[in-house]
Amino acid sequence: MTSLISKKQFSMIFSSADANNPINKSADGTIFSIITDQPIAFPQNSFDCTAEVVSATVWNSVNNVSVKLGNNKFYVHYGVDGTLYTVTLSDGLYSVSSLNTQISKSLVNQGLPADVINISGNQSTQKIVLSFPYIGSFADFNGINSCRVLLGFDSRNVPITPTTVTNESHEGDSVAAFNNIESFLIKTDLINGSIPTNNISDQTIALIPITSRTGDQIIYNPLNPSRVSADNLRGLGRNAATFRLTNERNEPAATGEAYSLTIVFRYSEFVNRVVN
């Protein structure tokens, strides 16, 4: 009789979707807990106990404009008397084109032409370009809750004096900041292992890069998922766990949609075999 190493694994799906009965779900949907009928556990004599996120789904829909962020206003002056018009933006995740469309719609509803101002992007500089088809117009980024940081402008009028020629254009003072999130992090207290970011270790088990367009679902299927220690599941294990979704700054990442992840749990153990 001899002892051999046997490698084993099992998988579980965890989801914040209401249909899957999460508990203690936060109002913004970023935190949820689960309770299982049977403990998630490895045999007491197991070793090399690990866990890895082999797939996940997260929606790329975290607001970059909102009342909470304090950037939901756009101010523009138009007409021979330079009348100030205010655009109040609904909370949402905007691209350059969708922001331009939303501002145009609001100005039309206020009785102005749709093209009072045109917002476009310079791909070479990653800066926003504001174009003014009508003489005497200018954008005002001095107002409260202005979206100037999103567009990459300082707190000033653009241009400094009202336009004097048709289709006058001005580029942003700095790079636009539409991508207020660089990546997502999934965290859990289920296991004791964690993937640290520099010197910060906060129960992170997966980094989800943003690979989809604004408003689309990210489907995460890594070729080489990072494994973390799950030694705490040896023996009695756990039948309760909490999961969190954050951005790369460890701030709650409210997408407004459910997210899910699949974890593969791996372990090894010695088994006795009769050798003839």
The gist of it:
The chain is mainly beta and 276 residues long.
SSE map:
Layout: E1 2-15, E2 31-40, E3 47-59, E4 73-78, E5 83-88, H1 96-109, E6 118-122, E7 127-132, E8 138-140, H2 148-151, E9 157-158, E10 168-171, E11 183-188, E12 204-209, E13 217-220, E14 227-229, E15 238-247, E16 260-273
Antiparallel strand pairs: 1-16, 2-15, 3-13, 3-14, 3-16, 4-5, 4-8, 6-7, 7-10, 8-9, 11-12, 11-15
Structural class: mainly beta
Residue-averaged pLDDT: 93
Query: How many whole angstroms does the radius of gyration measure?
Result: 26 Å
**According to CATH, what is the topology of the largest domain?**
Jelly Rolls
Q: What is the percent of helical residues?
A: under 10%
How would you describe the overall organization of this protein?
This protein is mostly beta strands. It has helices at residues 96-109, 148-151, and strands at 2-15, 31-40, 47-59, 73-78, 83-88, 118-122, 127-132, 138-140, 157-158, 168-171, 183-188, 204-209, 217-220, 227-229, 238-247, 260-273. It has two domains: 2-62 and 181-273, Jelly Rolls (Sandwich); 73-171, no CATH class. A hairpin with a 4-residue loop joins strand 6 and strand 7 (127-132). The chain is built from two helices and 16 strands.
Task: Provide tags for this entry.
276 residues, mainly beta, Jelly Rolls, 2 domains, five-stranded antiparallel sheet, four-stranded antiparallel sheet, 2 helices, 7% helix, 41% strand, elongated
